[in-house]
Amino acid sequence: MAEYALFLGCMIPVRLPFMESSGRRLLKGFAIDLVEMPSTGCCPDPSLKSVDEVTWTTLAARNLAIAEEMGLQILTPCNGCFETLKTVDSSLKGDTKLKGKVNQRLSKVGREYKGETEVKHLVEVLMDDVGVDRMRAAVVSPLTDLRVAVHHGCHLLRPSHILDVDDPIRPRLLDNLIELTGATSVPYYKSNLCCGAASGNADAETGKEMVRYKLGWMERAGVDCISVVCPTCFLQYDVTQRLVRKDSGDRFNIPVLYYPEMLLLAMGAEPEGLGLDMHRTSVAPVMERIAGGG
């Protein structure tokens, strides 16, 4: 049994508890043991870096140090946390001067960053620890005829020289995972474009326009749903889509599924146990299609 220190981040436990539930359930089914990390803080969000880089780095290093004390690698289901923690880990391992400054601050709270842990995203654990063959063998109710628009998310892919998850220009990781469920990953124009969440923090209308633009190309491609692995991207497509739909005269209504939900459905899980009713854009059309409703 593989064992990881679980770093949930802020967004999932506060706003998207069903993502935590489905992720835990999926990993437990493949004998991945998740150990709670005590006293963690925000990853933190990279916006703090522009205020004070050393403080931002120290806050992230404190989380890394907790995992080191546990003697475990970190598993996170959040793209943003993944990028922050892995970027900081890489920076500290390559910059002894910065590491010294950070450890001087950490010493005030009785901690030290040593550089002895690694950070992995949930999808990396699925691919590396579980593997394609075990996932494919677990599929008993393939999602045949379901057409899916994959959105990898910026923070899973870039900076690629540090994260090294997939080709940042032509990623295939999530497409391959989708196809393991029996569904079809449908190519669409500008699939690598950002969901617009960060832009929306500065200008809500710009964030909505980016969602509208992406949804338009997904709609043209004839997809049944969107699949994501990032909580922020999920909120953009699930919640902001409702605002876009209102502005566009109910034009857009594309359900959004978290990838672990899709794999669990393909493994025979009952929809009622996955918290799908907590999605703001109804997934009923997808469930009907999976059930054979056309």
Briefly, what is this?
By secondary structure, the protein is α/β, with parallel strands linked by helices.
Tell me the strand percentage band. 5-15%
Sheet with most strands: strand arrangement: 2-1-3-4
Q: Over the alpha carbons, how many angstroms does the gyration radius reach?
A: 19 Å
CATH class of the largest domain: Alpha Beta
CATH architecture of the largest domain: 3-Layer(aba) Sandwich
SS elements, strand count? 8
Structural class: alpha/beta
Secondary-structure element sequence? EHHEHEHHEHHEHHHEHHEHEHH
Please bin the fraction of helical residues.
40-55%
Mean pLDDT: 95
Give me the number of helical elements: 15
**Distance, first to last CA:** 40 Å
Shape descriptor reads globular
What does this structure look like?
By secondary structure, the chain is an alpha/beta fold. The protein has 2 domains: 2-122, Glutathione S-transferase Yfyf (Class Pi), Chain A, domain 2, CATH 1.20.1050.140; 132-290, Rossmann fold, CATH 3.40.50. It contains 15 helices and 8 strands. The chain has helices at residues 11-15, 17-29, 53-70, 79-94, 96-106, 122-130, 132-138, 154-157, 160-163, 173-180, 197-202, 204-221, 231-247, 259-266, 284-290, and strands at 2-6, 32-36, 74-76, 119-121, 147-151, 184-185, 225-228, 256-258. The strands form 2 sheets. It has a 4-stranded parallel β-sheet with strand order 2-1-3-4, with helices on both faces. The chain has a 4-stranded parallel β-sheet with strand order 6-5-7-8, with helices on both faces. Strand 7, helix 13 and strand 8 (256-258) form a beta-alpha-beta unit. Helix 2 packs across helix 14 and helix 12 packs across helix 13 (231-247). The radius of gyration is 19 Å and the shape is globular. The model has no long low-confidence stretch (mean pLDDT 95).
